[in-house]
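hiii, so i know i said id send this last week but things got crazy w the move. better late than never?? heres the sequnce for the chain we talked about at the cafe, plus the structure i predicted for it. fair warning i was half asleep when i ran it
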Amino acid sequence: MDFLLDILSTNKDKNNCFFLIVGSGTEFIKIKNWFDKNRIMNALLVQKLPKDEYDALVNACDVGLIFLDPRFTIPNYPSRLLPYLEKKMPVLASTDVNTDIGKIAEENKYGFWCKNGDLEKFNYYVDYYINNPHIIHEMGHNGYSFLHDNYTVNHTYNIIIKHFV
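okay and structure toks below
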């Protein structure tokens, strides 16, 4: 979460972007204390929301952020990606090097990836999204198509059944 706080700090003076952080994980108190101390105007921390309220909030966002701890040594695939794709939102993933979520997002043109901790590259992508708003719509549709082509129950069923036939 230190990387997230670095991102918020380096982007605090931007008036053309807003960061919304939702969650109640183990680092919530640390992040809340940072928010209380820094009182930045272009970010908000929300502890937790019921699913319907979270989904409504996601509808109001432009880009979904995904952070995974850089110390992970086995691939992880966070479930929060699915609502982003469903809502036609591109992603900006900042993960460990073992997780392929960013590679998949870039290969399928629905998002960007940087290694967790690469502040320069992360901020480059933030600025890229800000300065190229048309790409948000295009990448969002790419993600939605990818979701329906790869992550539906029917698709998963067919993959599993191939191993038994």
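btw The helical segments are 2-10, 28-38, 51-59, 81-86, 101-107, 119-131, 133-150, 153-162. thought thatd interest u
miss u guys!!
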